[in-house]
Design brief:
This protein is of the alpha/beta class. The protein is built from 16 helices and five strands. The longest helix is centred in the last third of the chain and has 23 residues. The chain is elongated.
Length: 328
Amino acid sequence: MEQKNQTKNLNEDLKSGDFKNLYLLFGEERFLVNYYAKAFDKTGFDKDTFDSASSVQDIMMAALSLPFLAEKRLVYVRDSRLFAAGRKNDSEKMAEFLPKIPSETIMVFAESEVDRRGRMYKKTVELGRAVDCQPPSPQTLTKWITRLVKEKNKTMNPENTAQLIRTVGSNMTTISQEIEKLAAYSGNETEITKHDIEKICTQTLESRIFDLTKAMSNGRAAHALSLYRNMLILKESPLMILSMIIRQFRILLLVKAAQTKNIPRHQISKELKLHEFVVSEALDQTRRFTEEKLLQALTDCQDTDIKIKTGLIAPEIGVELLIIKYGQ
């Protein structure tokens, strides 16, 4: 909840122009980190940019300099590693400096690694805003895609929005790139269709695994093997494929267990943090499986993993035998 408030407060700062002197942008969703960093660019403030190769003295000197042609000076520091281990002395110096940032200066750190136990992080929380950019909820992601598509003067119905996420994953950078491709491919056509997505978008490994387990659940072993062999041609690791199959079977088991308790679909989606269309398709896949069979499948997957890692069976063959067994 605290992090949600920090994101909301950052959006309000950008909208009102009433800024703190210190911001930290970090987190798993790099698209959002870059999005907010670019939002500061739009302020028109005098800007100095630094990175991990920059000395803390240069950064501090820039922060102490008065703006020349604008109301504020923006000091933007990317991946400095001052919030992680490795630059302890520099981090200590910068932590001492943070309370001295002039009122005319806004310091923005965009970091890949952040230690929340460190002094730099604690000082930033005390003096400014530390915004953890995590992947959005399924509902928020869907709304964002709709808005992004609309900006391209295109439309996409909810089913095709779900198809896009299932195909390319939920990484916002990837989605934005794929929408660019779709908008170009659809040309003068207003609507982006399922055919467009299947024709143009690059399918993630997770999506391919979903198709594989779907073929298995439908008793189409030959098709599942074909999908598996195509993944091998694409140089995917059999062990990675196996780990993804294990993950998918776990999802099926959790969804199946929730269904037996008569938990509504939207509630399953919320509790498992999965899109509703993923839950719907998982429920469809579980029709052929009892909970006992799914538990046995997970056990067999773990046994196969052990046999592969101890050299008792070749990786390609081990996964192939699993697919045959549960795709019959």
